[in-house]
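User: Show me a protein chain along with its predicted structure.
Assistant: Here is one chain, sequence first, then structure tokens.
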Amino acid sequence: MIPRIIILHHSLTKDSKTVSWNPIRKYHMGLMGQSDVSKPDYNYYVKHPDKDIGYHFGIELVEDYYEILVGRMINEIGAHCEGQNSHSVGVCFIGNFDESEVPPEQWNRGIKLVTSLCHQFIISAEKVYGHREFNHNKTCPGTKFNLDGFRDQLSLKLQI
């Protein structure tokens, strides 16, 4: 796979300052939750397990530093945005950015990661999207995540 776009997500979970990347992986693989829609911990993936976490990268606070975590290998097709997976890189910001702003340190790590990916794959800032731009039932990467601001800052970094 050669990526043509980058899609940003959020986990919709509170960042616990420990690695929650593995529970997200287990969730995507159907190893957590219930298959019964009426249950509060219903998980679609229990009946439709994936082979790995759907994202290529995650950005998460581990102790006191925002780490960039690897999910799927960059040459593997992700499972993060229906209809776009075959040509996109999925980046998940761990946190719920419907409820709060992205912490500046996490934002800056995201800019650093996405700048690197844009350089590596010759992707412009205009080709960085939020999941919500492809699926209007989603808020990814969160209603309080300023996508235009992210793209503007990314565009400046890419000019340097």
